[in-house]
Write a structure and sequence with these properties.
Blueprint (H helix, E strand, L loop, with lengths): L1 H17 L11 E4 L13 H4 L5 E6 L1 H17 L12 E8 L5 H14 L25 E2 L11 E5 L2 E12 L10 H15 L3 E6 L2 H15 L3 E2 L5 H6 L7 E3 L2 H17 L22 E4 L4 E4 L2 E3 L29 E7 L5 H15 L4 E7 L5 H11 L6 E3 L7 H8 L1
Parallel strand pairs: 1-2, 1-15, 2-11, 3-6, 3-7, 7-8, 13-14, 13-15
Antiparallel strand pairs: 4-6, 5-6, 9-12, 10-11
Helix pairs in contact: 3-4, 5-6, 8-9, 10-11
Length: 418
């Protein structure tokens, strides 16, 4: 009897050594990425979420810098053209704008950046703005149809092309949301351009989109054959390749940097080391980011990748958006960084950028950082379904990377961890 008891105790001790001792859920690392915890109406950061614990961070990209870059890219292109840009000769350069999600910081910034650059912006009176100093002051609301220039949320701008001054008018804009409620919807954008073209197609001289998914849907459905300049955002591989066929430009938000930072901050927080290891200072394997790729705002615990314009002049170097960066793709040793199991969700299984670019980049770096990632996909509009999936795994993993449906729903996730 004593022999069997001793064997049982030995087995229990071996099992105890083999199983990791997990921290309490509310002490585990939490990395919000892609969708920044914030008020969807005002853009104010949700600091309660960002300080959930001392291992909580956000990883995204500099939305304002990227938005201004997109606007600058569009204006530079237009100024380099001639009278042929005004397709119907009415003296108006008319553009349509595809808005991704009216409550998403990135979409808001891109709408503001395009309007400010094109001169069609007005101050955001709903936020008490009376003048425009930065893009934060610009009204970002959709206008519906505005062929007569009377819409309340924009004004007519002016641009000089080939020594002639033209009026710039936002002819139409809307949030591209499908019937199920999913935003940034490419199919909706493809259908909407058909309606706009039927109603006022000869007035459309330019297409501006908050992302490449919607921009490419319009390009393939109409603007490629019509020869209408089309601009997007994200530098997805298909959009970059389409520049050879007339797609006019996009913005790279450096998905490789974002994906690496998402998993790197998680790795560092799990290891209890300085959060900047492998970021501003090389890790043991030599991984490090140069200063021109990102910046860190310590006060808000937010990492931001910097953006770059992709045009006909440089697109060939961006053709593979899923390629890892060799400067931070070196394998960590398991002795230094034992394998850790973590949970990560993608808010929308059909979102072009997240699934065609960001997710492949995450998979480039999870192995080299010795992270065993449980990848979970959502449908783009049901927050509760993702939260429920988190709830089923919450006790079994050592850290979380969260991609919310709505920017003001961080509490839905952190409440599961309490």
């Amino acid at each position: 009897m004593k022999k069997y008891l001793a064997m049982a105790l030995a087995a229990i001790m071996i099992l105890a050594v083999a199983l990791p001792v997990l921290a309490a859920n509310n002490e585990k690392p939490v990395i919000f990425f892609n969708r920044q915890p914030s008020n969807s109406q005002t853009g104010e950061l949700d600091m309660e979420a960002l300080t959930f614990n001392d291992k909580t961070y956000y990883v995204g990209f500099d939305a304002k810098q990227g938005a201004e870059l997109q606007g600058e890219m569009i204006v530079n292109y237009l100024k380099g053209k001639g009278a042929e840009l005004d397709r119907n000769g009415d003296g108006i350069i008319g553009y349509v704008l595809c808005i991704g999600d009216v409550g998403h910081n990135d979409s808001i910034a891109r709408t503001r950046g395009a309007r400010k650059a094109l001169g069609t912006a007005i101050p955001d009176g709903t936020q008490g703005k009376t003048e425009i100093a930065t893009i934060d002051d610009v009204d970002s609301q959709p206008i519906g149809v505005n062929t007569d220039g009377s819409a309340a949320h924009v004004q007519d701008g002016k641009i000089t092309i080939a020594d002639k001054e033209y009026v710039v008018r936002e002819l139409a804009s809307q949030e591209m949301k499908n019937s199920a409620g999913a935003t940034w919807d490419a199919a909706t954008a493809g259908n909407t351009i058909g309606i706009w073209v039927a109603d006022f197609g000869d007035q459309i001289d330019v297409v501006v989109s908050n992302n490449d998914g919607m921009g490419m849907a319009i390009f393939n459905a109409w603007s490629k054959d019509a020869g209408v300049p089309t601009f997007g955002y994200d530098a997805n591989s298909d959009a970059v390749a389409a520049i050879a066929d007339g797609y006019c430009g996009t913005i790279s938000q450096n998905a490789d940097v974002q994906a690496y930072l998402t998993l790197r901050t998680l790795r560092n927080a799990l290891d209890g080391v300085d959060i900047m290891v492998g970021i501003s200072t090389p890790d043991a394997a030599g991984n490090v980011l140069s200063d021109d790729l990102y910046y860190y705002d310590e006060a808000t615990r937010c990492f931001y990748a910097l953006n770059g314009a992709v045009t006909a002049d440089n697109y060939e170097s961006f053709l593979d958006a899923t390629a890892p960066n060799p400067k931070f793709n070196n394998q960590l040793s398991e002795a230094d960084a034992p394998v850790k199991k973590v949970w990560l969700d993608i808010f929308n299984s059909t979102d072009n950028f997240l699934n065609a670019t960001y997710l492949p980049q995450l998979k480039n770096y999870d192995g080299i950082l010795n992270l065993d990632v449980e990848y979970v996909s959502g449908d783009g509009q049901n927050e509760g379904a993702i939260v429920n999936k988190l709830q089923t795994s919450v006790d079994d993993v050592e850290g979380y990377a969260i991609n919310m449906v709505k920017t003001d729903n961080a509490a839905a996730y952190t409440s599961v961890l309490e």
